[in-house]
Amino acid sequence: MRIPSVLTLAACLAPALAGMAPAFADPMNAQSAERFVYGRTFFYTCYEGTAGAGRILDDGSVAGTIQMRGKGNVRYVALPAGTILVRGEKVCAKVKGLAFQPCFDLDKTGEQSFRGNLAGADKMWCEFKRGGSGRTRMAERATPKRNDVATADEKAPSDPPH
Questions:
Q1: Would you call 89 helix, strand, or coil by DSSP?
Q2: Is there a contact between 28 and 107 (Cβ–Cβ < 8 Å)?
Q3: CA Rg value for the chain
Q4: pLDDT in tens, 13-30
Q5: Engineered SS bond to 54: which of 15, 22, 34, 78, CB 3.0-4.6 Å?
Q6: pTM, full prediction
Q7: DSSP element (H, E) containing 41
């Protein structure tokens, strides 16, 4: 298994937390970030094209999807309890195999959105927008799409046979 790069790690973890600066940016400390982010699903896009959706659960575990640099397959990612943790006023990540614990700067950019970047690395950012529940989207994906024209097996006779 390959150890994730810092960028990959930031893209995977940021949805769970967490160019041009947003017009409205309100820095979030760890406690306000927990209230705003934990348990909610967010769609995200990052500066280099990585995109996906995910959520951080109350135990600090992370679950979601990622498409690296906006190309290739969308992958499901799940990280264990304790991956996201609070260190003083910072939201940080603890990932097995990574030599350091990255922390994140989080800014609320709207009522349903925030921006996250690796602390001290303003050019490595992801934008997050709150989405529907994960269960709702999973149900939508699991429901087969119907064509406008039904197959012969799906058509019911209008009158019962005589």
A1: coil
A2: yes
A3: 20
A4: 544 443 333 445 789 998
A5: 15
A6: 0.66
A7: none
